[in-house]
Write a structure and sequence with these properties.
The protein is mostly helical. It has one domain: Hypothetical protein af1432, CATH 1.10.3210.10. 62% of the residues lie in helices and 3% in strands. Strands 1-2 form a two-stranded antiparallel ribbon. The chain is globular and about 40 Å long.
C-alpha cells in the first residue's frame, strides 16, 4: 500500500474544464467526503462497503484527471474508466464490493453533490448547460430511493 499515493489522490481538482466552476477549487477528497456524508444522512442502512466506495470512488482520477461526464462516453471514455479502475486497484487492491442498490445510491449521491456544489458556487448557471435535466434526474433518483422530500429542499 502506497500511503503517499493515496494521500495525493485526493488533491485532484474538480471542475477544471468548466469555465463557470473552475475557480471554485473543489478537490476530490472534499467531494468524496461530501458524497459519503450525503449517503450517511439519507440512506436508512448504508453498508460499510458503500461508505468506503463513496470515499474512494474518484481516486482513479489521480491518473486521468477530472473529466466532464460527457468525456467518459464512447471508446475513449471506456479507456479512461479502465485506467481509473486500474488506478483504484493499484491504490486500494480492489474496489469495495457492494450491491446494485449501493451503486444507485453512490451515483445518486455523486450527482447530488455536484449539483449542490454548482448551485452554491454558481447559481446563475443553474437554468442552462444541462443543470435543469440534472436536477430532474436527481429528483427522480431521490424519489426512487425514498428520499425525494429531503432532496427537494436542497435542489
Amino acid at each position: 500500500m502506497d500511503l503517499k499515493a493515496i494521500f495525493r489522490a485526493g488533491f485532484v481538482r474538480r471542475w477544471h474544464a468548466n469555465p463557470d466552476l473552475c475557480h471554485t477549487v473543489d478537490r476530490i477528497d472534499g467531494h468524496s467526503a461530501r458524497v459519503a456524508r450525503i449517503i450517511l444522512a439519507l440512506h436508512p442502512e448504508p453498508s460499510i462497503g458503500l461508505i468506503a466506495e463513496a470515499l474512494i470512488h474518484d481516486d482513479g482520477e489521480s491518473v486521468t484527471g477530472d473529466m466532464p461526464h460527457t468525456g467518459k462516453i464512447g471508446r475513449v471514455g471506456a479507456e479512461l474508466r479502465a485506467a481509473e479502475g486500474k488506478a483504484v486497484r493499484n491504490l486500494w487492491g480492489a474496489s469495495f464490493l457492494f450491491s446494485g442498490d449501493d451503486l444507485e445510491w453512490l451515483a445518486f449521491a455523486d450527482r447530488l453533490d455536484a449539483y449542490m456544489w454548482a448551485k452554491h458556487h454558481a447559481p446563475h448557471i443553474m437554468a442552462g448547460d444541462g443543470w435543469p435535466r440534472s436536477r430532474n434526474d436527481i429528483l427522480n433518483a431521490a424519489a426512487k430511493l425514498g428520499v425525494g422530500e429531503a432532496v427537494l429542499e436542497v435542489v
